[in-house]
Amino acid sequence: MSSPALERSKSAPTLLTSAQREMLAHPVDQYLRDVQKSALKGLWEGIQAGLLPGLDDSWFFRTFMPNAQIEAAQMDKNKERSFDDIWPKVTELNLYDLLTLMASVPGAAKLLFKPKATHSEGFGVLEQVGPDDVTHPEKAKLLMSALSKSALVQSTAVPD
Hints:
This is Type III effector HopQ1-2. By secondary structure, this protein is mostly helical.
């Protein structure tokens, strides 16, 4: 099994805090927030279970929280750390563009991209998508347009 990765040069990050994400009302924003929150929770739980060699609490705090060293020092090593306690403190989480999201969805990824398999020590096989790996830019553009329009229609629909 492999995981998708999009080159940073092809993505458009926007830093949002978890608190800012919780306030987003648009369905696309809510979907992205839920997907990223779930992914971050899986990462946190994997670290807690010792399933991710080389990743620990300190790495997580440095990566996703600004006062990482303070947080790590304040955390009781014997106390179980709930993701629900961690999530409100997350302030460094990138909201990537729709193209990045599509690269992470298996059906869309196979239709639109031809990723290069790369190996990463400790993480296994990653699928890297670079500028030359978008096989059907016109289909990607149409799909992005359709998804945006669908989200707008859903957000303005009047409930029955």
